[in-house]
Amino acid sequence: MTGPRLSEDPDRLPPPPPAPPMIMLPKSSQASQEHDRPDSAYGGSGGTPSLSSAESVESVDTLTHDVAPPPPNPLLTSQHELNQQAQRQQHLYQPQQQSIQPSNPSTLDQDQSSSYADSAYDDDTSSLNESITDTLEFACSHYRWENGRRYHSYCDGAYWGPNDETHNDQQDIAHHAWRLALNQSLYLAPIQNPTRILDVGTGTGIWAIEMAETFPAAEVVGTDLSPIQPTWVPPNCMFEVDDVTLAWTFRKDSFDFIHSREMFGSIADWEEYFRQCYLHLKPGGWVEALERGVKPVSDDGTVGPDHFWTTWGDTVLSIGETWGKGFNAWEILKEKMEDAGFVDVVQVPMKWPIGPWMEDVHMKELGMWNALRLDTGLEGYVMRLFTMTGGVRFLGSVRLKGVRRLTGVQWSYTEVQAFLGKFKACMRDPRNHGYLPGLVINPVW
């Protein structure tokens, strides 16, 4: 026994109707429609869509555009019924072209205006804040490359030193050398139980991190032009991208201790810098500056006026003058501090031997570390200064008379490398008993 079937009369079998046309919504149109929707409908940029009931229906219609219509029902026996089915399918799958424009708050009633302010306005503010943050982050971390070295981008050109891994390693070596010079201490100022500490020009942040570990109850803030500090730090340590030569944004009378180290060639007006320190220290607070020279000298005459190291020092000092930020900070700190209002200024002089030529075991170790940092860091010290600033060009002689003062003449990369090679050659000569003068200075407020 068979089930019901259509008549076998060929005249009653209608031809199958043609499939309704597929009208697909282009992706660009979809993206345009999504872009035209107000942010409030999506809970802010990048959020999960939160649609009203009317919008949900529209969304269902839009989503069904990509679904193929079902085939005609073979059990329909009349052409009229087949045509009706085709019309229903065409109506169901016809794309609903419409554009949703943001509402104008001025035309809304009070309730609608309040809803608009509570949703779209807050989302726009959030998006704006995120955009500003992203822009600042890009501006601070989109570094500049010169002669194979990486430099800061925030306040581009304000600092001579690179911020790549090679120079950062050199900074950590310098930190170890300063610990040796200070008998493993982080500071010399007689501070007790500080609550807030500022490290100016923090670099890799190693000093600030160790101070935060030493004083866990104190807030330690490190500032620098480059965001190169680690993120895994003590909870009481934080870092900020800032230029110390600009107006300070900290609250006045808020720090117990302000520390800086090797800021030579970074500050044009030292008196103004110490004036800012004075304003932002609490009464009785301390400021400490650690600086060293760039011109090697000797006590036994092995580094005389005709020595290459003398040529080196005069060259760097002259280019620093052209740069506008001198490298002789260690010679003027006491005077600038007193001019800013500090009293009881104490200077602690020290020597940084270049190489292990001293007999004292402590100074011999300091000399080895100092030679290591010079050997790895010399290129970073002078490459940008010499190739961008010019000022003095070395012409090949190790004598001072072999240097001509040519203001504005920039060095080539090859000339800088040749100049560095001569300095390093002198470092390997044990007959040279040179050292770099330095000091630690800390007055009371």
Structural features, described:
The protein is 40% helix and 14% strand. The chain has 445 residues and is an alpha/beta fold. α8 crosses α10 and α10 (361-389) packs antiparallel against α11 (413-427). The radius of gyration is 36 Å and the shape is globular.
State mean pLDDT (0 to 100 scale).
75
Uncertain spans, ≥5 residues at pLDDT below 50? 1-13, 21-67, 91-123, 128-135, 390-407
Shape category: globular
Number of helices: 11
* N- and C-termini, Cα separation: 112 Å
Hey, roughly how much beta strand do the residues contain?
A: 5-15%
Rg, rounded, reads 36 Å
Helix content: 25-40%
Strand order of the largest sheet: 5-4-3-6-7-11-8
Instruction: Tell me the structural class.
Output: alpha/beta
Give the SSE order as H and E letters.
Answer: HHHHEEHEHEEEHEHHEHEEHE
How many extended strands? 11
Largest sheet: 7 strands, mixed
What's the SSE blueprint?
Elements: H1 27-36, H2 53-63, H3 79-93, H4 110-141, E1 144-146, E2 149-151, H5 165-181, E3 196-200, H6 206-214, E4 219-224, E5 237-241, E6 255-261, H7 270-280, E7 281-292, H8 308-323, H9 329-339, E8 347-353, H10 361-389, E9 391-394, E10 403-406, H11 413-427, E11 435-441
Parallel strand pairs: 3-4, 3-6, 4-5, 6-7
Antiparallel strand pairs: 1-2, 7-11, 8-11, 9-10
Q: Characteristics of this structure?
A:
single chain, 7-stranded mixed sheet, alpha/beta, two-stranded antiparallel sheet, globular, 11 helices
Question: Quick recap of the structure?
Answer:
This protein has 445 residues and is α/β, with parallel strands linked by helices. It has helices at 27-36, 53-63, 79-93, 110-141, 165-181, 206-214, 270-280, 308-323, 329-339, 361-389, 413-427; strands at 144-146, 149-151, 196-200, 219-224, 237-241, 255-261, 281-292, 347-353, 391-394, 403-406, 435-441. A seven-stranded mixed beta sheet has the order 5-4-3-6-7-11-8. It has a two-stranded antiparallel ribbon with strand order 1-2. A two-stranded antiparallel sheet has the order 9-10.
